[in-house]
Design goal:
elongated
Protein backbone atom coordinates (compact mmCIF):
# COMPACT_ATOMS: atom_id res chain seq x y z
CA UNK A 1 0.00 0.00 0.00
CA UNK A 2 1.38 3.40 -0.98
CA UNK A 3 1.58 6.45 1.23
CA UNK A 4 -0.90 8.91 -0.30
CA UNK A 5 -0.66 11.65 2.34
CA UNK A 6 1.24 14.00 0.01
CA UNK A 7 -1.32 13.47 -2.72
CA UNK A 8 -4.14 14.02 -0.21
CA UNK A 9 -2.79 17.44 0.76
CA UNK A 10 -2.04 18.42 -2.86
CA UNK A 11 -5.50 17.41 -3.99
CA UNK A 12 -7.05 19.32 -1.09
CA UNK A 13 -5.16 22.49 -2.02
CA UNK A 14 -6.21 22.05 -5.66
CA UNK A 15 -9.86 21.66 -4.57
CA UNK A 16 -9.60 24.82 -2.47
CA UNK A 17 -8.01 26.82 -5.29
CA UNK A 18 -10.41 25.73 -8.03
CA UNK A 19 -13.54 26.17 -5.90
CA UNK A 20 -12.43 29.58 -4.63
CA UNK A 21 -12.25 30.54 -8.32
CA UNK A 22 -15.77 29.12 -8.81
CA UNK A 23 -17.00 31.19 -5.86
CA UNK A 24 -15.32 34.29 -7.29
CA UNK A 25 -16.92 33.61 -10.69
CA UNK A 26 -20.35 33.20 -9.07
CA UNK A 27 -19.89 36.55 -7.33
CA UNK A 28 -18.88 38.25 -10.57
CA UNK A 29 -21.84 36.70 -12.37
CA UNK A 30 -24.18 37.86 -9.60
CA UNK A 31 -22.75 41.38 -9.85
CA UNK A 32 -23.20 41.50 -13.62
CA UNK A 33 -26.73 40.11 -13.36
CA UNK A 34 -27.62 42.64 -10.66
CA UNK A 35 -26.39 45.51 -12.85
CA UNK A 36 -28.23 44.17 -15.91
CA UNK A 37 -31.44 44.11 -13.87
CA UNK A 38 -31.16 47.87 -13.41
CA UNK A 39 -30.31 48.43 -17.06
CA UNK A 40 -33.35 46.41 -18.14
CA UNK A 41 -35.58 48.21 -15.65
CA UNK A 42 -34.50 51.60 -16.99
CA UNK A 43 -35.35 50.68 -20.59
CA UNK A 44 -37.68 52.71 -22.76
CA UNK A 45 -40.63 50.35 -22.71
CA UNK A 46 -44.11 51.73 -23.15
CA UNK A 47 -45.33 50.12 -19.94
CA UNK A 48 -43.57 49.35 -16.70
CA UNK A 49 -42.63 45.66 -16.72
CA UNK A 50 -41.25 44.03 -13.57
CA UNK A 51 -37.73 42.82 -14.08
CA UNK A 52 -38.40 39.30 -12.80
CA UNK A 53 -40.82 38.76 -15.70
CA UNK A 54 -37.79 38.52 -17.96
CA UNK A 55 -36.95 34.76 -17.99
CA UNK A 56 -33.20 35.45 -17.96
CA UNK A 57 -33.26 36.85 -14.42
CA UNK A 58 -34.61 33.78 -12.55
CA UNK A 59 -32.52 31.46 -14.72
CA UNK A 60 -29.36 33.39 -13.83
CA UNK A 61 -30.42 33.39 -10.18
CA UNK A 62 -30.77 29.60 -10.14
CA UNK A 63 -27.44 29.23 -11.97
CA UNK A 64 -25.67 31.46 -9.43
CA UNK A 65 -27.17 29.52 -6.49
CA UNK A 66 -25.99 26.24 -8.06
CA UNK A 67 -22.49 27.65 -8.56
CA UNK A 68 -22.33 28.78 -4.93
CA UNK A 69 -23.52 25.35 -3.73
CA UNK A 70 -20.88 23.67 -5.92
CA UNK A 71 -18.19 25.98 -4.56
CA UNK A 72 -19.18 25.35 -0.93
CA UNK A 73 -19.15 21.57 -1.49
CA UNK A 74 -15.73 21.76 -3.12
CA UNK A 75 -14.32 24.00 -0.41
CA UNK A 76 -15.54 21.69 2.34
CA UNK A 77 -14.06 18.68 0.55
CA UNK A 78 -10.77 20.50 0.05
CA UNK A 79 -10.60 21.49 3.72
CA UNK A 80 -11.31 17.92 4.74
CA UNK A 81 -8.52 16.62 2.53
CA UNK A 82 -5.99 19.21 3.72
CA UNK A 83 -6.82 18.64 7.38
CA UNK A 84 -6.69 14.84 6.98
CA UNK A 85 -10.34 14.32 7.92
CA UNK A 86 -12.57 11.62 6.47
CA UNK A 87 -14.22 12.75 3.24
CA UNK A 88 -17.01 11.38 1.09
CA UNK A 89 -15.77 9.44 -1.93
CA UNK A 90 -19.18 9.89 -3.58
CA UNK A 91 -19.09 13.69 -3.25
CA UNK A 92 -15.52 13.76 -4.53
CA UNK A 93 -16.43 11.60 -7.53
CA UNK A 94 -19.43 13.79 -8.34
CA UNK A 95 -17.38 16.99 -8.10
CA UNK A 96 -14.60 15.43 -10.19
CA UNK A 97 -17.00 14.44 -12.96
CA UNK A 98 -18.61 17.90 -12.93
CA UNK A 99 -15.16 19.52 -13.11
CA UNK A 100 -13.89 17.48 -16.07
CA UNK A 101 -15.35 19.70 -18.85
CA UNK A 102 -13.95 22.93 -17.38
CA UNK A 103 -10.58 22.97 -19.13
CA UNK A 104 -7.76 23.33 -17.96
CA UNK A 105 -8.00 23.52 -14.14
CA UNK A 106 -11.19 21.51 -13.81
CA UNK A 107 -9.85 18.79 -16.07
CA UNK A 108 -6.68 18.51 -14.00
CA UNK A 109 -8.74 18.47 -10.78
CA UNK A 110 -11.15 15.86 -12.15
CA UNK A 111 -8.51 13.47 -13.46
CA UNK A 112 -6.32 13.82 -10.35
CA UNK A 113 -9.31 13.34 -8.05
CA UNK A 114 -10.57 10.28 -9.93
CA UNK A 115 -7.07 8.80 -9.83
CA UNK A 116 -6.61 9.50 -6.11
CA UNK A 117 -9.95 8.07 -5.02
CA UNK A 118 -9.43 4.94 -7.14
CA UNK A 119 -6.18 4.10 -5.34
CA UNK A 120 -6.19 1.41 -2.71
CA UNK A 121 -5.63 2.93 0.71
CA UNK A 122 -6.75 6.48 -0.02
CA UNK A 123 -8.72 6.32 3.23
CA UNK A 124 -6.26 4.17 5.21
CA UNK A 125 -4.50 7.10 6.82
CA UNK A 126 -4.93 7.74 10.53
CA UNK A 127 -7.49 10.44 11.18
CA UNK A 128 -6.43 13.07 13.71
CA UNK A 129 -8.68 13.47 16.71
Amino acid sequence: MRDLSGHRKSLGILYLFVHLLVLLAAGALAYVTWNLVFVMAAGNSTRAVPVWENPAVPIMGVFIVLLVALAIAGLSLGLGLVRGRPVSKGLATLLAILALPTFPLGTVLGVYSLWFFSQEGWDAEPWPA
